[in-house]
Design a protein that fits this description.
Layout: H1 5-19, E1 32-33, E2 36-37, E3 41-46, H2 50-62, E4 66-73, H3 76-90, E5 101-103, H4 107-112, E6 118-121, H5 128-137, E7 141-144, H6 152-168, E8 172-174, H7 182-192, E9 199-208, H8 222-228, H9 234-237, H10 240-243, H11 246-255, E10 263-269, E11 284-290, E12 296-303, E13 310-317, E14 320-325, E15 330-335, E16 339-340, H12 348-362, H13 369-388, E17 392-393, H14 394-398
Helix pairs in contact: 1-13, 2-3, 2-12, 5-6, 6-13, 11-13
Protein name: Gfo/Idh/MocA family protein
Organism: Larkinella insperata
Domain Gfo/Idh/MocA-like oxidoreductase N-terminal: 41-165
Length: 429
Amino acid sequence: MSTSRRDVLKMTGMALASSVLPSVTILHPQRSFAGVNTDTLKVGLIGCGGRGSGAAAQALKADPNVVLHAVADIFKDKLEDSLTNLRKVHGDKVKVDEEHKFIGFDAYKKVLDSGVDVVILATPPHFRPEQLMATVQAGKHVFCEKPMAVDAPGVRKILEAAKIAKEKKISLLSGFCWRFHEPKRAIFDKIQDGAIGDVITVYNTYNTGTVWSHPRKPEWSDAEYVFRNWYYYTWLSGDHLVEQAIHSVDMMSWAFGDKLPLSAAGTGGRQVRTDPKYGNIYDHFAITYEYEDGAKGFHFSRQQVNCEGSYMCEALGSKGRAVANVSRNVHEITGRKKWKYSGAANDMYQTEHDELFAAIRKGEPINQGEYMANSTLLGIMGRMAAYTGRRITWDEAMNSTEKLGPDTYSFEMTPPLAEVARPGITTFS
């Protein structure tokens, strides 16, 4: 059955309403008091790269009675490096013995079976939908890094998993970190309260340099090389619009009150990042999102060295202008109601986990599944529009049948190596 834009709006509203309702669910009622859980919470880390290791460090800092219990990755060296670095910071809180170090493409299942209470999902985005579904079916609280998927079938699975999490009264927290940044919470709250009137246009950018790549080693198979350089393959990362610039797209959605657009159209390509080592992703995008009231969102992203940088979200309304500038750390409203943020900033990455573990302790689950799925699809539909040269509606994007990548994996497999997309030639499905 297809999912319409109206249906998704209804689901999102229900999720927001349910997320504020208290729950009496606790992990072990026999060892709690006043409805607050006091047990040692065991954390499982799935994906031991830089972001996963950082999230694990923040989880261990978020609560005095939390330990890292089990870890999983497809690369042993990544796993061991992660544990070494975490032990330097958190010492005895890292209680991962040899029996709880899991290597392989099915290692996440072993973490879920290891007795953990909370799971951190930080593998490449292609794997997120299947791993999130397994995590919520296992009844585990979860921190889920962005983006949540690389294609529409994945987004639909994320929405299904979010519904299961709600039914099970378990917390599902997203990795859209700016939603936890106090200066941005302040300015976007003001936008929603009407400080700039009706939001007419939102301009957002993510113009940066390039990112890491790992030179091939002789012992690596073709598949291992691709998995180690996953960022440069659309089926694994979703392209940089979905994998990184999605933060700016999410701020655009936030400024619009998370209402869904009618359509997206745009362009993109690769001008300088053309070497085969960069896989098949683009190095720039320009997308226009159209909304039913005539409002528009304009997104620009670029990953090219020695170019002007910009990382910001600017909302223009009927009564003023609001700017959340990441690059310059400026959060300001001009117009009829002038305002500038002057309070303290916080470590948004730490706040994510502080709020997650506080919710678990109180038995008041947080569920951000719908909005994190919708924001992910905003990036995916923008990529679809740029890759094909077509105007893509929200409903077309949500109901797309295009599935990126295989269902089974090994280092002996022949990795899918799609051509670089060519607008007007690449088709939509």
